[in-house]
Amino acid sequence: MVIAKKVETEKEYEDAIVVRRKVFVEEQDVPLHLELDEYDADAVHFVAYDGEFPVGAGRIRLTEPSIGKVERVCILPEYRGKSFGNLMMQCMEDYAFSNGFQKLKLNAQSYAIPFYEKRQYTITSPEFLEAGIPHRAMDKSL
Q1: Whether pTM exceeds 0.70
Q2: Which residue from 5, 22, 75, 139 lies 20 to 30 Å from 93 (Cα-Cα)?
């Protein structure tokens, strides 16, 4: 069974971190100290599973009253293009909406902009580098 869910246990948190390390640190060469940061402690984390196997991760932090920032969204390479990203984002957006968030912001890697545009996110910045990777800021009203 394929699911995405809010992290509720230490094991689920560890599963999300494993996916983030594989995607960001191993695949994209983001330094570990940038990937695992001071915001992890206060963020709400999410994980996606294919059966018992973790395949996706993400987190949301409250950055301003009623505004959340979606971060660290990733899917293992072999699971991309199979709707896991949409499943993960829907789970995170549902959580944000049900918890009174009015807007979500994110910094999308430039190659992923079409994915977020299909989810009604709008570009709000010129391209910039984050961890050496081109990004654009985007947001979406809930």
Answers
A1: yes
A2: 22
